[in-house]
Design goal:
- It contains 14 helices and 17 strands.
- It is α/β, with parallel strands linked by helices.
- It has 3 domains: 132 residues, 3-Layer(aba) Sandwich (Rossmann fold); 157 residues, Dihydrodipicolinate Reductase, domain 2; 91 residues, ACT domain (Alpha-Beta Plaits, 2-Layer Sandwich), CATH 3.30.70.260.
- The strands form 2 sheets. Strands 7, 8, 9, 10, 11, 12, 13, 14, 15, 16 and 17 form an 11-stranded mixed sheet that branches. The protein has a 6-stranded parallel sheet with strand order 3-2-1-4-5-6, sandwiched between helices.
- Helix 4 links the parallel strand 4 and strand 5.
- It starts with a strand and ends with a strand.
- Bound molecules: L-homoserine (HSE).
- L-homoserine binds next to helix 7.
């Protein structure tokens, strides 16, 4: 057997500790599969005294992850610190610049600096591997980069944030408040350190930017993503969706269109019969539409120590085998800078919930504003008005839910702006896009 692979791990939180346990538990199998033993030679974390429930053995301790990245004690640097700047970025750059392969789970870093880091890895002829950065334990990076190399991909979309899916699933099933579900997700360790990254859609966007590059051979362009979070979703929306035959999921969607790449993250109505609608709790799912394979959906654990460690260890095993793929599937110079498709040009069906002053002519006015823009309505549902007055109104606003057939974002926004201006609508309209299979 050839020499051991000496691994340095920076960041000993849930994932870091799980990686050490998994490397230990699978040591014999990994040595057999890769032809080398894999040894945790050095580690770094903020607090040396913290009890982590792992045996660090003879690993050398570094207080500074950048010093670890530069050290001759290791052959491979594993970055599990997190954050798109600071020590994580500095350590990854240092490791690559000193000719060491890097394995990272850091989606924020890749979304922001992925191209520069891939160029650095390329120039140093070392691996930059990031299977754990998207969808936890689901091997979606390898699937897109290697498994589907013979396909032309037209769309990739999925549930990429376990915390949001957990919150929406529990709200829907148990009629619990958003806040109660978020607190539970934090207690279970699914949420990011700052949960606005999860619920605001930013974590999903980071992951989507990586998938888009791999799927379409384009330069990572996280700035192009239209982002909406789940904080505006109410129990009323979840119930209305249910009545209409849909579920609401936070999706990241990337689609190639004739005039550019559309990348968007937003709460989405998906038909209850679809594969993605069955995915509940912290589970993630990614669906790929491609010419040869047609439709492929991968479902699995999107967060949590062991699941994410599974992806980190797979990348470590690749390095042990001497595998060095182009990080985003193509040499960086060949990654296309694709035109961005503006969200206003998005086409699809819409769910619109309006809080309407219950007066004669209100429904007719809203329908007129839609019809003026050739928006065709699939369904209109008015929710239980209060006790009627002598003029036929109930006094309090009523909830009106509309479903449209396919139309454009621009038309929907214009129609709603006009209807709000007409004075029948009491609150900001709720708009949720519908994604068809
Ligand atoms: N906070 C993330 C999630 C963890 O909830 O999916 C994995 O990236």
């Amino acid at each position: 057997m050839s020499t051991s692979l000496r691994v340095g791990i920076a960041g000993l939180g849930t994932v870091g500790a799980s990686v050490i346990r998994l490397l230990d538990r699978q040591a014999a199998a990994l040595a057999a599969r890769t032809g080398r033993s894999i040894k945790v030679a050095a580690v770094s974390a903020r607090d040396r005294s913290r009890e982590r429930g792992v045996d660090l053995g003879s690993a050398v301790w570094f207080d500074d992850p950048v010093a670890l990245a530069a050290s001759d004690e290791i052959d491979l640097f594993v970055e599990l610190v997190g954050g798109d700047e600071g020590p994580a970025r500095a350590a990854v750059e240092t490791a690559l610049a000193s000719g060491k392969p890097v394995v990272t789970a850091n989606k924020a870093l890749l979304a922001k600096h992925g191209m520069a880091l891939a160029r650095l890895a390329e120039s140093q002829r070392v691996a930059l591997a990031f299977e754990a950065s998207v969808a936890g334990g689901i091997p979606i990076v390898k699937t897109l980069r290697e498994g589907l190399a013979g396909n032309e991909i037209s769309r990739v979309y999925g549930i990429l944030n376990g915390t949001c899916n957990y919150i929406l699933s529990r709200m829907e099933r148990e009629s619990l408040s958003f806040e109660a579900c978020l607190a539970e997700a934090q207690r279970l360790g699914y949420a990011e350190a700052d949960p606005t990254f999860d619920i605001g859609g930013f974590d999903t966007a980071h992951k989507l930017s990586i998938l888009t590059s791999l799927a379409f051979g384009t330069a990572v362009d996280a700035e192009a993503i239209h982002i909406e979070g789940i904080n505006t979703i109410t129990l009323d929306d979840l119930r209305s969706a249910d009545e209409l035959g849909y579920r609401i999921k936070l999706l990241g969607v990337a689609q190639r269109t004739a005039d550019g790449i559309e990348q968007r993250v937003h709460p989405t109505m998906v038909p209850k019969s679809s594969a993605i609608a069955q995915v509940m709790g912290v589970t993630n799912a990614v669906t790929i539409d491609a010419d040869a394979v047609k439709e492929l959906t991968l479902v699995g654990p999107g967060a949590g120590g062991e699941a994410t460690a599974s992806a980190v260890v797979a990348d470590i095993a690749d390095v042990a085998r001497g595998i060095r793929s182009a990080p985003f599937g193509l040499p960086t110079a060949a990654l296309e800078v694709a035109p961005r498709r503006a969200m206003q040009r998005h086409e699809g069906g819409y769910y619109i919930r309006l809080s309407v002053h219950d007066r004669p002519g209100a429904a007719a006015n809203i329908a007129m504003r839609m019809a003026e823009r050739q928006i065709s309505l699939e369904s209109i549902m008015q929710k239980s008005p209060g006790r009627a007055r002598s003029d036929g109104s109930s006094g309090a606003p009523v909830q009106v839910v509309l479903l449209t057939y396919a139309t454009s974002e621009a038309k929907v926004r214009e129609a709603l702006e006009a209807a709000v201006g007409d004075g029948y609508i009491a609150e900001k309209p709720q708009v949720i896009r519908i994604e068809r299979e």
